[in-house]
Amino acid sequence: MNHTMDEIVNELKGLPDNELTEILGLIRAKRATYHKPLAFVQELMGFRYLGPVGEHHFQYEMRVTDDLLNRYGLLHGGLMTAFIDTAMAETAFLIDQTVERALTLNMAVDFIRPGMLGVLTADIHVVQNSKTIIVFQGSVMDTKEQLLATAMSHFYKQPHRPS
C-alpha cells in the first residue's frame, strides 16, 4: 500500500457502519463517472431523464439524500439550481444533435418551497430554439406535486467542430 492508501485506511478505522456505507456510495458514484457521460454531482443527485411529456417539454428527476442537505436539513439551493441547469443542458442535447456543448449563459431561479428528502421532478420547456441560443423555462416539483422552484435560462449551443 502506498502512503495515501494508508492514510485513507487510518481515517476509515473506527467509523460506524452507516458512515462507511455512505463513503462506499460516494466512491461508487465517483467511479461510475469514469464510464458515463455524467459528472460526479449528477451521480450524487441520482439524475435521470424520464422522457418527453408533450411537445417541447421534457422531464427529469433527482434523488435528495442526506448528503445533499444543508445545515437546516433542506436541499441546498445550489444543488436545486444544478439540477435545473443539468436538466436544461441535457434537453439541449436531446433536441439538437449538432450541439457538442450546451453552455449556460444566464439563469434566474426563484425558490418557492424548500426541497426535502425524496424524489424531485424537473419539467423543462423549450421556449425558443434558434441557431445558437436555446431559451428554457423550468419548474421543480416534489412528490406531493408542490412547486419548489422555477427558472428561466439561456444556453449557448456550441456545435460539433469538424475533425
How would you describe the overall organization of this protein?
With 163 residues, the protein is an alpha+beta fold. It has helices at residues 3-12, 17-32, 40-45, 77-95, and strands spanning 48-52, 57-64, 99-111, 118-129, 133-141, 147-159. It folds into two domains: 1-32; 39-159, Thiol Ester Dehydrase, Chain A. The protein has four helices and six strands; from the N terminus they run H-H-H-E-E-H-E-E-E-E. The longest helix is centred in the middle third of the chain and has 19 residues, at 77-95.
Blueprint of the fold:
Elements: H1 3-12, H2 17-32, H3 40-45, E1 48-52, E2 57-64, H4 77-95, E3 99-111, E4 118-129, E5 133-141, E6 147-159
Antiparallel strand pairs: 1-2, 2-4, 3-6, 4-5, 5-6
Short summary:
With 163 residues, this protein is an alpha+beta fold. Helices cover 31% and strands 37% of the residues.
Number of strands: 6
Number of separate helices? 4
Listing every helix as H and every strand as E from the N terminus to the C terminus, the arrangement reads HHHEEHEEEE
Strand order within the widest beta sheet: 1-2-4-5-6-3
Average pLDDT works out at 90
Kindly report the name of the CATH homologous superfamily of the largest domain.
Answer: Hotdog Thioesterase
* CATH arch. level architecture of the largest domain: Roll
The number of domains is 2
Give the structural class. alpha+beta
Largest sheet: 6 strands, antiparallel
Range of helix content:
25-40%
Q: Uncertain regions: pLDDT < 50 for 5+ in a row?
A: none
**What oligomeric state do these chains adopt?**
single chain
Q: What is the radius of gyration computed over CA atoms, rounded to a whole number of angstroms?
A: 18 Å
How far apart the termini lie comes to 42 Å
- Form type: globular
**CATH third-tier fold name of the largest domain:** Thiol Ester Dehydrase, Chain A
- Highest-level CATH class of the largest domain: Alpha Beta
